[in-house]
Amino acid sequence: MERVSERSLSENLRRSDREDGKIIEWEEFDHELTRLWSLSSAMKLATERKQILQPKLESLIQVFLLLMCFLLGMSEFDSFLSVKHRFLLVALS
């Protein structure tokens, strides 16, 4: 009777393993370990690169925003000068 319960327990464990994760055969273990190591290394490099590029990108965005504010300000100033110039022309005529 104990063998039946052990067998059903073993089958339930295998079934839950299949549902929860990937079962790797022993012959494929070395290949899977190499693949996971490679993915982990690639992820580490990508994270390091992101940390290096993030301040540079934030700086470029800040410069872009300042430039846009300046250009918009110049555009409004040019509009103001144009209206003032037209007003003076009309007033002097």
Describe the structure.
- This protein has 93 residues and is an all-alpha fold.
- It has one domain.
- The chain is 89% helix and 0% strand.
- The chain contains two helices and no strands.
- The chain has helices at 2-20, 29-92.
- The model has no long low-confidence stretch (mean pLDDT 78).
Mean pLDDT: 78
Class per helix and strand makeup? mainly alpha
How many separate domains? 1
The total strand number stands at 0
* Percent in strands: under 5%
Secondary structure: helix percent? over 70%
Detail the poorly predicted runs.
Answer: none
Task: Calculate Rg over CA atoms.
Answer: 35 Å
Q: Describe the oligomeric state of these chains in a short phrase.
A: single chain
State the end-to-end CA separation.
Answer: 115 Å
| Coarse morphology | rod-shaped
State the major sheet.
Answer: none
Order of helices and strands: HH
Number of helices: 2
Furnish the topology, listing elements before pairings:
Blueprint: H1 2-20, H2 29-92
Task: Write a brief structural summary.
With 93 residues, the chain is mainly α.
Task: Offer a few descriptive terms.
single chain; 93 residues; mainly alpha; 2 helices; rod-shaped
